[in-house]
Amino acid sequence: MSTWLRNTFRSLLCIATFVLLETGVAWGVSELVAVWYMNEHGFSAGEDLSNDLGLGILLGLAVLPALLVASPFSWCGSIKAARKILPEQ
Asked: How many CB atoms within 10 Å of residue 55?
């Protein structure tokens, strides 16, 4: 495999892993916030949350900082994974 092709695949793998990790962080934090909000305000079903603006604001305030904190860790992890899967020769 040529060096250019290996570097291209490694870059694509790194980007895909980063996006996957960040998506997982965003999903996990949003689920935690939704469950906390349901317990705090006494909602029994998730359908009641769709009309609540406070949850949307709370999600924005919780998910964005979590993504900013997780970004360096996700980036380092994706670089390590890409180097492990496609090592240099």
From this structure: 20
Q: How far is CA 86 from CA 13, 16, 46, in A?
A: 9, 14, 43
| Amino acid identity, position 34 | A
Distance CA 5, CA 85 (A): 14
Local confidence pLDDT in tens for the 89 residues of the chain = 688 888 899 999 999 999 999 999 999 999 998 888 888 888 777 666 777 777 788 888 899 999 999 999 999 999 999 889 888 87
* Rounded alpha-carbon distances, angstroms, from residue 66 to 17, 19, 70, 71: 17, 14, 6, 8
pTM over 0.85: no
DSSP for 9-42, written as a single string:
HHHHHHHHHHHHHHHHHHHHHHHHHHHHHHHHHT
Smallest CA-to-CA distance from 12 within 66, 89, 86, 88 is with: 86
